[in-house]
Amino acid sequence: MAQLKAAVLISGRGSNLQALIEECTRADAEAEIVLVISNVAGAAGLTRAANAGIATEVIDHKAYESRESFEDALHHCLVGAGIELVCLAGFMRLLTEGFVRRWRDRLINIHPSLLPDYKGLDTHARVLADGVKATGCTVHFVRPAMDDGPIIVQARVPVMPGDDEDRLAARVLTAEHRCYPMALRLIAEGRVSVVNEQVAIDGAPAPAGLQLDAETLPD
Ligand code: GRF
Fold first, then answer.
1. What is the Å distance from ligand 1's center to 15 Cα?
2. Can you tell me whether residue 47 is helix, strand or coil?
3. 111 is catalytic
4. What would the pLDDT profile of 28-43 be if each residue is shown by its tens digit?
5. Which of 124, 102, 135 lies closest to 214, judged by CA?
6. Which residues neighbour 79 within 8 Å (Cβ) at sequence distance 6 or greater?
7. Pocket residues: Cβ below 6 A from ligand 1
């Protein structure tokens, strides 16, 4: 069977991109990353893509008059490359309803919290300020509202005494690097569907997605 053609959209470091690249180098991978697009020239993730022999494009939002014209350029680039699934990985632009609708159920994102808690930026600072015992990360299908949409995979990560933002972010990032490849793999294997705005895995409804505990995540 042909591999699922995926694109990854980034704005920066690209550590989740790296995890997705590594997933796709597995002998039995059913997804292939054929394109990496950054809205920021010089994003470190572009070098990761180039090192892996993946085509890259820079589409700088500042060069466009409107969000819509920027997104038209993105859309045409994705369509031109035959992309079937778009993975947002630290892509720091909000996407309009029009773009999200065009890629409905073919557009996924990773967020460093247990959604629906702590949507938006500065999640780790807010988690620490609230004194909660656990946080995590979520891979979800994208809907027009920010950090909203059917959940595919979530991992719970403990908040430890003495954590600061950097320590907590690093612990969550390790879980992100497990969850995002897992979600890509499940989708590429055709095991994920969306029914009534909830994910089903292998046909079984999973209202909060595949629930994992970071301490027990497989390598
Ligand atoms: C990750 O924490 C991801 O959850 C968030 O942005 C960060 C991107 O990091 N959406 P990287 O560029 O993948 O290293």
1. 7
2. helix
3. yes
4. 999 999 999 999 999 9
5. 135
6. none
7. 12-17, 89-90, 110-112, 173, 176
